[in-house]
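Self-study notes.
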Amino acid sequence: MRPDYVEAVLEEARQLDFEVQSPRPAAADRLAPVLITVVRDERSAMEGFLAHYRQRGVREFVVIDNGSTDGTPDMLAAEDDVTVTPVDRPFHWTAKQAWIMRVIETIGFHRWYLVVDADERVVFSGDDHYSFSSLAAHMELEGQWRVRGVLVDMYGPGPLLEAPEGPLESTHTLFDAEGYHEALTGQMVSVKGGPRRRAFRADGIELDPELSKYPLFKLAEGELMANPHHHWPYEENFKSPCYLGILHYKFGAGLREKIGNAIAEKNYWNDSAEYRAYQAAFADDPALSLAFDGSRRYTSPGDLVDCGLLRSPEWKKHRWPRRLKQARARLAGLVKS
C-alpha cells in the first residue's frame, strides 16, 4: 500500500499539462548529473547557485520556475547550460515533487540527478578535486544509487532579522558543530538536531526538522522522489553513508517576508507549522541570533567530517580513470537490458 503523500504526488502528476524541454546533448552522459531545482523569485541567489555547482562539474541545469516576478526566468534564459521550464500551478510540497518527477520521466530513468533548492549548496569531501560525476561513478562501483546528505543550517553571528545584504556564503559562515542525533526509521536514516531545533520553540510548536536528504540519486521506473527528504520505495535509502553536506542558507535577507508568505499560503508541511514557529519566536525576541558556544566557522567539507556529520568517500579504493570507464560501460549495459 502506498503512503498518502505518494498518492498525492501521483495525483498531481496526473493533472500536469506542462511541457519539459530536455537539456542539451551533453546530458547523454548518464553519470553526469542533471541538476533540477524549483524556484520562485530567486534571481538574487542564482549567480552564486550556478557558480557553486559549475565548479563541481555540473553541466546541465533544469530550473522549474513557479511564477517568478523578479526576472528570474529572463536572467536564466541567457545561460547556455540552463533549461527553464515554467509551471503555472499552485505550490505545495507534494506538487513540487510531482513537477520534479515529470522532468525525470522526460529526460529518462537510469541516470543520475542532483535535486536541490535554491538556498542549498551541496559539498562533499574531495570536491576540490572530484566532481559530482566522479561521485556518481564511485557510487556506481559501490552498488548504491541514492547518496545520503545532511542539511547543515548556516547562519551569521548577529540577529537573523538583520542579516546583511550580499552573498550568503560570505555572511553566513557559522553552523552547529554539535547536537545531532541519527536514527533509523521505516523510511530512511534520519538525522535530527541543529539550530532550528535548538532555537525555535514557541507558540506551542517545538521544531524537530528532518535534516536527512538524498539529493544525488538514480531512479528506475516505478521509483519516486515523492518526498523532499527521501525516495520511495524505501529500501535503497538505507545503503549510503552520509557523504553530502547540504549547506542550507535559509536565513538570508528578506526572511520576515518569506515567513509571512509561507504562513499565508500554508503550502509547506503541516500548513507551514515551521514558519509559524519562526514568527512566534521572532515576536518574542526580534534580536534572536543562532550563534552560541557550539557554533563553528565553516571553511571546507573537512569541517563537517571533523564534526562527524559526513564521511569521506574512499576515493583511492577505485582506480581512476579505468574504473570510471568500467562504471560507464556497466551503466550502459544496464540501460540496454
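Second protein, same conventions, sequence then structure:
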Amino acid sequence: EDLDETLLVFDTKLRHMRSDLAAIEGSNNRLELQSRNNGRLMDTLQDLLSELRLPADVEALLEAPPFGRDSKLDSITRAAWQLHGRLRRLDPGAPGCLSLYLLQMR
C-alpha cells in the first residue's frame, strides 16, 4: 500500500514535470521564431536604409553647396535630383516606391 502511494506521488510529479517541460519547449520555440524574425527584419531594414542613404559627398554638397563664382551648379543639381529620387521612393503614389506595407510601418 505504501508502495502504491509512493508510485502515485511520483506519477503525479512526473506529469507535472512533463507539463512544465512542454510549456518550456513551447516558450523556447516561440523565442527562437521571434529571434529569427527579428534577424530578418534587421537585415531588411539595413538593406532599405542602404538603398535610401545618399553618398557622403552628395550629402556634403547638399548641406553646404558651394554657391559662388566658381560654383558647380551641375553637381549641385545632380545631388538635388539624387535626393529627390530617394524621397520619391517614400511617396506611396510614385512609380518605384517602396511597398505600402513598409511605408505604413511605425
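Instructor comment on the second fold: The helical segments are 2-52, 56-63, 73-88, 100-103.
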